[in-house]
Amino acid sequence: MGDPIRVVVVDDEPMVCAHLRTILGSAEDIEVVDDAQDGAAAVESVVRHRPHVVLMDLRMPGVDGLTGIERICKLPDPPAVVALTTFDADKYVLRALRAGAAGFLVKSTPPGDLIGLVRVAADGHTVLSQEAKKRLLAASGDEQSSRQRAVALVRDLTEREVEVLTCLGQGMSNAQIAERLYLSEATVKSYVSRLLVKLSCSNRLQAGLLAYDAGLVPR
């Protein structure tokens, strides 16, 4: 077994932090290296501990989770930040995803699922259910300014880049995109990396939201 997945838990409720520590600590390949009570403390913890994953509550006194996510995602080589919420989907979650969160989890997620989803996030994948994704994309399409920005960004892409971005908007993996477009997975990975830079997106989910805003993915 290699090095454990390092996790920082951020919540203003000590009992929630203790609960998440207990659950995640039961997995041999996960280590909760710290917990923090607001977004500012979370940034300090990330700089100090260099975790792979941050579980971030959104609604906290002081520096809230949205601000914490924005600050963490601007750090060099940031960890995957997963928003924690008590709701399936709301404007806070959409803003968190736009700020660079790799997905979100409801606090009622079963312990076994939580452990598996932390592993998924650490591996660089989106942590978001299909139903939640549909609801968030629908909310995304309601923002006129986001649509205008997305359309302008897509204009500067090549035809192939637009095809790859459309696939991201449909939630496809690199393997699925490769099969759809008759490319190698290595080539798809290169396209995705280039798209994230061109579009100033922190992760695949942000790019997928942008594809939806630009009208590449039908409702």
From TrEMBL:
This is Response regulator transcription factor. The modification 4-aspartylphosphate is found at residue 57. Keywords: DNA-binding, Phosphoprotein, Transcription, Transcription regulation. Residues 6-122 form the Response regulatory domain. SMART domains: HTH_LUXR, REC. InterPro entries: CheY-like_superfamily, NreC/VraR/RcsB-like_REC, Sig_transdc_resp-reg_C-effctor, Sig_transdc_resp-reg_receiver, Tscrpt_reg_LuxR_C, WalR-like. PROSITE patterns: HTH_LUXR_1, HTH_LUXR_2, RESPONSE_REGULATORY. Residues 150-215 form the HTH luxR-type domain. One of its GO terms (biological process) is phosphorelay signal transduction system. Pfam families: GerE (PF00196), Response_reg (PF00072). One of its GO terms (molecular function) is DNA binding.
